[in-house]
């Protein structure tokens, strides 16, 4: 079962790590926020001449406190407070709920033991990029971190964008009908994204923005002690609402569908996958 968790972590990270440099994060000292994200991944693959379906469901809840904010940076405390995971790979299954004491000693319980209810101090710039954090774990060695990071961007990883900040074009006021294009090549996941955005509406300072585009990735990845060569192409679409003045997300929905192949231990594994994510941020 562990190898399927590793595969899921690699694919989720690559599918959901698109970041933009045109963001803003005008947070206020004393803000108390809660972000709840759900993800469902369905993957069909061919292994050793047999078809196999992998269905994974995740839910992550984070609390974020803004401890300080000035003209150049924001200082936050981010705490992962609740995790629910349900994974099925063919006849095998595994589940985890961080609120259940009986799950604490499971494989997933041990993986999350250093993260659940542990506050991490985080600093972001005014574009919402994480510039400092006392979370020193690495996704390459940390399967749980890869999966939770793939829920959007990240809450604690230096060099990633803060998950609760939305994508906006820099240097201009938004109006209904505005469009822009954003692209990113991410060497960490050998990924390339091209996304087209459109402002559907703005009401009472809240913008609704739709987007769609392409994702591609190829190359060697390490995860959970496994080496994988991955070739993936897919389509992304979704929408989000955010507070225009602060850049804070209120809701976000993302759908990604793609197909490709993996090479694992000398075996080529073709696959198709679909990922749906939902994020809600409250307490603004």
- Unreliable residue stretches: 148-152
Structural class designation = mainly beta
Q: What integer value in Å does the Rg equal?
A: 19 Å
Tell me the distance between the termini.
Answer: 39 Å
The total beta strand count reads 12
Count of DSSP helices? 3
Form type: globular
Mean pLDDT: 83
**String of helices and strands:** HEEEEHEEHEEEEEE
What key phrases describe this protein's structure?
284 residues; single chain; mainly beta; twelve-stranded antiparallel β-sheet; 12 strands
Description:
With 284 residues, the chain is mainly β. It is 10% helix and 56% strand. The chain contains three helices and twelve strands. The chain has helices at residues 2-16, 107-112, 143-149, and strands at 32-47, 50-69, 73-89, 92-97, 120-125, 130-133, 179-186, 191-203, 206-223, 226-243, 249-264, 267-282. Strands 1, 2, 3, 4, 5, 6, 7, 8, 9, 10, 11 and 12 form a twelve-stranded antiparallel β-sheet that branches. Helix 1 runs parallel beside helix 3 (143-149). 39% of the residues are buried. The model is unreliable at 148-152 (pLDDT under 50).
Helix-strand layout with pairing:
Blueprint: H1 2-16, E1 32-47, E2 50-69, E3 73-89, E4 92-97, H2 107-112, E5 120-125, E6 130-133, H3 143-149, E7 179-186, E8 191-203, E9 206-223, E10 226-243, E11 249-264, E12 267-282
Antiparallel strand pairs: 1-2, 1-12, 2-3, 3-4, 3-5, 5-6, 7-8, 8-9, 9-10, 10-11, 11-12
Helix pairs in contact: 1-3
């Amino acid at each position: 079962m562990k190898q399927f968790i590793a595969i899921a972590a690699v694919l989720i990270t690559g599918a959901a790590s698109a970041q933009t440099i045109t963001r803003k994060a005008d947070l206020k000292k004393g803000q108390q926020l809660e972000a709840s994200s759900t993800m469902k991944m369905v993957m069909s693959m061919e292994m050793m001449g047999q078809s196999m379906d992998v269905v994974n469901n995740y839910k992550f809840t984070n609390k974020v406190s803004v401890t300080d904010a000035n003209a150049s940076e924001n200082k936050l405390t981010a705490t992962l407070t609740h995790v629910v995971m349900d994974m099925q790979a063919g006849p095998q299954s595994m589940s985890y709920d961080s609120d259940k004491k009986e799950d604490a000693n499971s494989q997933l319980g041990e993986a999350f033991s250093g993260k659940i209810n542990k506050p991490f101090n985080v600093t972001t710039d005014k574009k919402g990029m994480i510039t400092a954090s006392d979370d020193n774990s690495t996704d390459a060695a940390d399967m749980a971190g890869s999966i939770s990071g793939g829920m959007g961007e990240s809450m604690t990883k230096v060099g990633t964008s803060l998950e609760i900040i939305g994508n906006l074009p820099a240097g201009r006021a938004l109006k209904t009908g505005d469009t822009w294009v954003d692209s990113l090549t991410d060497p960490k996941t050998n990924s390339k994204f091209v996304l087209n955005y459109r402002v559907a509406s703005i009401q009472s300072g809240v913008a609704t923005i739709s987007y769609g585009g392409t994702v591609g990735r190829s190359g060697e990845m390490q995860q959970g002690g496994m080496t994988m060569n991955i070739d993936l192409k897919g389509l992304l679409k979704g929408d989000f609402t955010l507070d225009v003045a602060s850049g804070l997300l209120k809701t976000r929905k993302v759908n990604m569908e793609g197909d490709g192949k993996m090479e694992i231990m000398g075996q080529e594994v073709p696959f198709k996958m679909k990922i749906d994510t939902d994020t809600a941020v409250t307490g603004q």
